[in-house]
Every structure is written in structure tokens, then in C-alpha cells.
Amino acid sequence: MSISRTRNFSIIAHIDHGKTTLSDRLLEFTQTITVRQQQDQLLDSMDLERERGITIKAHPVCMNYKAKDGQMYKLNLLDTPGHVDFSYEVSRSLAACEGALLLVDASQGVEAQTVANLNLAMQQKLHVVPIINKIDLPSADVEKVKRQLEDILQLSSDEAVPASAKMGIGIEDILEAIVAFIPAPTDPGDGYLRASVFDSIFDPYRGVVSYVRVMSGTIVRGQKVRLMASGNDSEIKDLGTFRPKMVPCEKLEAGDVGYIIANVKTTADVKIGDTLTESRKPAPEALPGFKEIHPLVFSGIYPVSTDDFEALKLAVGKLQINDAAFTFMAESSAALGFGFRCGFLGLLHMEIVQERLRREFDMDVISTYPSVIYDVRKTDGTVLKVDNPTFLPPQAEIDEIREPIVKVNVMIPNENIGDIMQLVMDKRGVVNNTETLDDRRVLLHTVLPLNEILVDFNDKLKSMTRGYGSMEYEHAGTQAAELVKMDILIASEPVDAFSCIVHRSKAESRGRQLCAKLKEVIPQQLFVVAIQAAIGGKVIARESISAMRKDVTAKCYGGDISRKRKLLDKQKEGKKKMKAIGRVNIPQEAFIEVLKNN
Fold it and tell me: Are the C-beta atoms of 293 and 265 separated by less than 8 Å?
């Protein structure tokens, strides 16, 4: 089909605004799938995606559509993940398109991620067609959303298409808008092969399947190709398009979106955003926008039973083949035995990896408190990257610690502004400015340390705003902070599993919290056990577990007091000796309980 009748587009939206449902309706209307193949969330193939209603892995699809002008058009939809953790993948998918459909819920209006995803599309200079979805809902207010499109997003509401993906209203209007407003791809015509790799998956039988958008040139079977960032050469074994299953074809030309299978064994060799070119006649420069993906959140993953370490090693290895952004390296803990230090793109990514380990590999795992990478400058001028409190140098050797920070845009109802500003300040953040969006909502532009939003920030935001608040964040470099390593001592022995890096202002409250929790879960011994939180040599919090007391005078009935005194003194000596040589055995359950509590 002629390149002038090809349209490449993505659908971008805030979570739960109906992106996947609209994809299903477009596939049905263009008869890309038969009635027999129809099912909800067709492009979401993982059980986890279906249950949570989120897209984790992008899935492209090619549709043929006969427009009202009588011409047949080829429409390539590049589905994108919805969550902020995967924003780099979203930007690469958008770079492979010429236009985007921006979906806005008619009852909820513009949300935080709507703004973030629109900014990504604008950076790629895409033509954006607004779609006002869910107009069938009783609470839908189309006119208000049109005003928001113009006031907040600076988009023309004249192009906005009212629709309901669930009820199938306005689907043909959306397809006509794609044909009319989204420009056709252009081919520079210089004869060089350039294709952008926007995703890849691992097939156990055929190796790595790369999803590509051909910018110029042609790809055919048997062709020798090169990935420009990694420099790896390989031969094309198979290629084709998605309808929505993989359908082999003879060649992929400029403007086409499809898959290629070359002799590549792991997804780590195929980097997202890389440029594919011919080995014999490589393109003079790569396509712009490629960057290496680096993990931002780290956590230790350990098997509950130490006998399962080998099985866990096999499971994380298989997961990494399919997910190049997930990294791991072996580590050991005195408390939890052997496990892995794993790196993730964000908290959702971490949650998904742990859930997949439980479901797909039947692994029962414990994860330690998530941490970020700190830049530590020592007094001798050397700079270390520390993601584990164990590797932090002694306080006397540290000149400065820098922690990663994020810009967080928080969209909330007007009445919650005071509570949320207080929450941001409690998390050591600052509110740069506030923006009034309409008569009901405001947008807060804030800067927070990444470490502070890792665990419960989003949960507190949702509960304070009764579910109406939304947030999105982007990384904004590092800043110096007064961070210290807090050790937990049990009977004067430090326990590395409970060590953490905290801000000095929060160390005392966090220490009290941990000590109180440990007092609940560590069993009584025959002597008094001190649980202490310490920074360097200074103890900042303490709890004591009282000794188990045996009544040694129970056998004395009547008689002289000196007999009882003698027995009590003997017991006292024994306890003193035991305290000097005794060890506290911390049961595995105590570690699991405290790590869960974190």
C-alpha cells in the first residue's frame, strides 16, 4: 500500500480513561478480529494486565480501513504502557508515530498523566487529536472538558471527537479523524535503511522478537542488519506485521510497523530506542532520542526458604530475558541468607516483577525496604554510588551525600490543598507553585526526594483526596541532603538486614518505630535484651525485652529467708554470666514481619 495512505498513531491517556477499550472497538470496527476472537482487553495478554486494568507491555496492531473517500488506508496503532514508570517506552513508541489520540474521560476531565503524556507527544512534534470518551455516563460534561482542552492543554476543541468506547459511539468518527488529521509518514529517499526499535519480547522457540517502525529503506529476509547503539550484527530470519497476532510478510517498507526476528538470544542485546540499519551500507547517523535505561529503585529479593535459592536464580534469569530494564546481582545477608539485589524502573515495576515471580515461577519471596541510588562524595574526593546501606562508608569519611529528586505534579480538588501541602512538607518536599485549572481543581508543582515518595505517598494522596487526586513525576537530578546510616543493635550486635539510610530529621521517629516493632516480634530470652537504634556511636532509640523469669524460690515453703536469698543470688550470677556470653536468635518470622511492616 502507498506510503501516503499509511497512518501511524498511538493512544495516550491517564490511567482508566478507556485506552484499551477504545483499542478493542477499533479492531472490531475495522474487522481486524473476527467475532469469535473478540474479548475485552484484547491487546493486554498478561493475566496481571487484565486484573489490574493496566498495560505493562506495549502491543502494536495493523488495521485496514476503507474511508468515506473510498480509499483503503493502513492504520498502525502502537499501544503504549500507561504508567509513569514506563515513560521512556512511551516516548519511544510515540517517536515511531506521526500522530496521537489523546483520550480524556468526559466525567473526570484532564488529569495529571493526561498533561504528562501530552507533553511527551508534543516533544516528538506529533499531531494530537483529542477524543472525549465516556460521553454515555450520567456525570459526563463534554462542554467542560472542551474548555479544559483549550485552557489547560492549549488544544483546539474543534477537532475533539465525542465518543464512548464501551458503547461503540463515535468509533467511525475517530477513524475518519485519524485519516484526516494525522499526517502520512515521509521517506527521506536517500536509500539508507533506518528502523526504530520501540520494544522487544522473548520467544522461547524463536529468540528475541523486535518491534520496529521502518523510517526509510526496506527490510527483507536474509538481510544482514546492525543495531547502531550496541554495534551487534545479525541476519533477519523472519519478519511480518501484527493483525493482531504475528503474520509473516515478504518485506517491511518505509512507514511500516512490524516485527523482525534475527539471531539474537537475549533482550539485553536489543536496546529500546536503538536504530536498525544495514551492515553493508549503514546509515550515517542513528535516529535521535536513544538513551540507556537505568534502574532507579533497588530492593533485595530473598527466598523465604533458603533451599529455594537456585530456583529463584533461574526465575530472575528468565524474567530478565523478557524485561531488559530489570537488573539483578547476587548478595547475601546474615539474617536472610542468599538472595539478589534487584533494580527496577519504579515501584509499579518492582511490584509487577515480584508478582510475576510468585505466579509464573511459584516462588515465595521476601523483599527488603526499597531504596534509591545515593551519590556519596568521600573526604578524599572519590565519589561512590551506594544503593545498599551496608556499603555506606563510615560517617567520618563522608563529605557529602546527594539523593535523587523528582518533580511531582499533583492534581487535587480545591478543598484538599492544605492537607496535600502539609503531606509534601512532611515528605521533605517543596511546593514551587500552584495552578488553578477550573472551579474544582488545582495543580501543584512540587519537588520531592525520590526516596520519600517510594512507599506510601500515592496511597496517602488517594486517601486524603478520597480517590480524586492524581500524580505524575519525572526525574530532576540530585540534591545534597543530611543523610545518615541508622543501625539497629540487638543485644549490642548490629543486624545488617535492618540498617537503612534516613534523613537526620526523621532518624529518631523511624528508630523508635523499628525498635517498637522488633520488641513485638523477638521472643523473650533468659536475660534482658536491649534493642537500640544508633547513628554511628550515638543511640537514638531503645526498647528492652524483659527476661523470662523462673521462680527459683517456689520449692521453699517456710524456713529461713537466708535460703531464699542464697537461691536468688545464685540465679542473679547465672543471668549475669548468660548476658555476657548469650546470643539472641532472631527467628526468620521476625525479619519477614518487620520487612512487611516497612
Answer: no
Residues 160 and 27 in one domain: yes
Q: Sort residue 273 into left (φ over 0), alpha (ψ -120 to 50) or beta.
A: left
Strand partners, 479: 403
**Chain centre to alpha carbon of residue 461:** 18
Do 37 and 154 fall within a single domain? Answer: yes
Separation between Cα atoms, residue 62 and residue 75, nearest integer Å? 6
Q: Coil, strand or helix: which one is 364?
A: coil
Packing angle, helices 112-123 and 87-95, rounded to 10: 40
Domain membership of residue 383 as a residue range: 374-481
| pLDDT tens per residue across span 1-16 | 678 888 888 888 877 7
- In a domain, residue 379? The reply is yes
Question: What b/e sequence results for 368-391 when a residue is b if at least 16 CB atoms lie within 10 Å of its CB, and e otherwise?
Answer: bbbbbbbebeeeeeeeeebbbbee
Q: Are residues 322 and 405 in the same domain?
A: no
Closest C-alpha to 529, from 486, 495, 565: 495
Kind plus residue range of the DSSP H or E element containing 533:
strand 529-535
The pLDDT tens digits of the residues spanning 321-374 come to 667 677 888 887 766 778 888 888 777 778 788 888 888 888 888 777 777 888
Cα separation of 485 and 23, whole Å? 49
Q: Which three cell numbers, joined as nine digits, stand for 329?
A: 546481582
**0.90 surpassed by pTM:** no
Instruction: Retrieve residue 471's grid coordinates.
Output: 500524580
- Which residue type sits at 87? S
Quote the cell numbers at residue 469: 487526586
